[in-house]
Design goal:
Length: about 290
């Protein structure tokens, strides 16, 4: 087996958190060995990252603008065309496990209370993912937005540069088994400034994730900008045309032209094909890598 597995802790995550990403990659490899399933490997690896409170997904997710709510998005996909996603799911430990369950249902995506209810039907227990660190980050967000009424702070929010406010964005994993099978997964607590009900790129096929017969691409960063560019699908098409995952990922970043140097949109991309991987990011990003020779 010549597996290649890459994980990330979100664009903006300190490189020193790479140990968590490497642990997730190793869990994925172990699962691949045991099950021969790239999808299972991606799901298990992503769940390890969701359980690490240093990352903005599962435990440790960002709070919404109300300071009380966590709504999480996640998706899984493989090169056999299986896809499942949840958006705005609440009070579960591992949104990626629910996304996997959705991939086995007649639907592709479930959102909000329906997604949470679906999880309960599968006996996924109630779990509060709020951490003290997430509350601290929220204090910063609140300070930046000031105490103005909604129309004012909403205006100001739209004018804010793309701050990560001390948090990272999304976790992700890409898996190749070296035999032409690929899978990926992503999970997030969203960005720093979010209204309730806002959905980012992570659960949107072609935006936060895309998997085809030639490889897999998973993206991290400001969801609205990633969705506008259908980033993962565009980068995948480059790989499918024979360009290396590294060159394709580097090209993906060129789609985000900064208005000013100080306002570079945070974006990260991880990708693999059958023989190689690529990692590109605008800001620091913790990663884990396994490439068997
Ligand atoms: N990339 C995660 C989000 O924008 O929600």
């Amino acid at each position: 087996m010549k597996a290649i597995i890459v994980t990330h802790g979100g664009v903006g995550s300190p490189v020193s958190h790479g140990d968590g990403c490497q642990k997730a990659a190793e869990e994925a490899l172990d699962t691949l060995r045991k099950t021969s399933s790239v999808l299972q490997a991606a799901v298990r690896g992503a769940a390890v990252l969701e359980d690490d409170p240093r990352f903005n997904a599962g435990t440790g997710s960002n709070l919404r603008i109300d300071g009380k709510t966590i709504e999480m998005d996640a998706a899984v996909m493989d090169s056999d065309g299986n896809f499942g996603a949840v958006a705005g799911i609440q009070m579960v430990k591992n949104p990626v496990l629910v996304a996997e369950l959705v991939s086995k249902s007649p639907h592709l995506m479930l959102c909000g209370p329906g997604a949470t209810e679906f999880a309960r039907r599968y006996k996924i227990p109630w779990y509060n993912p709020i951490t003290p660190k997430a509350r601290e980050r929220y204090k910063k967000v609140k300070k930046n937005l000031s105490k103005r009424r909604l129309p004012y702070w909403a205006k100001r929010w739209l004018n804010l540069p793309y701050h990560l406010e001390g948090c990272s964005d999304t976790i992700g994993i890409v898996v190749s088994d070296g035999k032409g099978n690929f899978a990926g997964a992503g999970s997030t607590g969203g960005t720093s400034y979010m209204l309730r009900g806002r959905i980012g790129d992570t659960p949107i096929i072609g935006s936060g994730i895309y998997v085809g017969k030639k490889g897999v691409v998973v993206s991290t960063g400001i969801g609205e900008e990633i969705i506008r560019r259908m980033l993962s699908k565009e980068v995948y098409e480059k790989i499918a045309s024979g360009i290396s995952p590294q060159k394709a990922s580097d090209w993906g970043l060129t789609l985000f032209k900064p208005q000013k140097p100080a306002n570079i949109t945070p974006v990260g991309i991880i990708a693999v094909n059958k023989t190689d991987y690529g990692i590109s990011n605008t800001h620091q990003m913790a990663v884990g890598i396994i490439k068997q020779s």
